[in-house]
Model the fold of this input.
Amino acid sequence: MQAKLGQLLFYDPILSGNQNISCATCHHSDHGSSDGLSLGVGEGGVGIGPQRTTGSGPDRIRKRIPRNAPALWNLGVREVSVMFHDGRVTRSDIYDNGFNTPAQEWLPEGLSGLLAVQALFPLTSQFEMAGDPVENEVAGAAYDRIDAVWPILAKRVRVIPEYGRMFVEAFEDVATPDDITIVHIANALAAFEISEYQSFDSRFDRYLAGDADAFDETEQAGLELFYGEAGCSSCHSGPLLTDQRFYALMLPHFGPGRTRQWDSIVRDVGHMAVSDRLDDAYRFRTPSLRNVALTGPYGHNGAYRTLEGIVRHHLDPHGAFAAWQKDEVILPSAPWIEYKDFVSFEDSQERARLASRLDITPITLDDTEVAELVAFLETLTGGDSVKGRLGRPDAVPSGLEVQ
Done:
């Protein structure tokens, strides 16, 4: 019941400030639980996936989302210990609530796990789901204090009779709709994502289970490169194919950046913004490779539209950085902000800073070996699991348009 409730909330724009965007807008079942864009189009955009536009008139977007929308596959498994590209949500006792998050000590108690915690933060972001402070009370509350947003959204949900009834049925501690809090909403969202986006039925899994015929010769050669000469498994390890650590890959920077407070230039320093350690500058979390063929563009900012492109970058970061072209990115047209899209990429000093930070060792492979690696990565795509379990609902209790 909690997963069904979470499904409806996931696709319902009721959780956004202007009630025009849902979780599914940027993490859609039709696009591998992502959106097919290099940088997302949040509040003010129209449509889904690569066809999403940047809006028009006074409602058009004011800024692109600074990073690529991450895929949701297997984020609910126990081994996952870090969320977001920069790792700003982790398990920790630093605030005596079990988690280290942007909400610090104001994070509500009772969240079911890391995935439920993560679900709270897009709701508070002006350019993702909250909107502009002059437009609605949700966005205005975010500028007061981050936790001021969540009671407003919880009230919106609990006054809808169908949601109220479902929460009473789904949660033992909800006796009446008045008991519904943002914690119940986040836990329902997490329950849906855990169920919907669990995927361990790929041909790679068949191979691990002993199926000697799971791969053809090209894919087998790619597997041997992945775990051998190419060194991919040094970071993409374990059942999730990620070590959940942070590395600087020298990916070219573009877009608005996730600029830290007091930073005088447009850039994205990655995990350093969380740790405040200079050693973490430009380091980003190793992504899981489960269903990777479904989740392009690739990199924390979607700098490469193809698997081959991101593989070649890993093999020769300096060469790929120097040769990178703007047509690698998938960015919906937005003439009023496009003049800023590549300001940081064209900044010679920022390019030098990016080029000075590299945590991976270049490797020489020929074109055949690159093709073999890509072929192996495509075997990581799941079977029936990629279709989900509950899918997209036809309607949601708010009566708003399903995303």
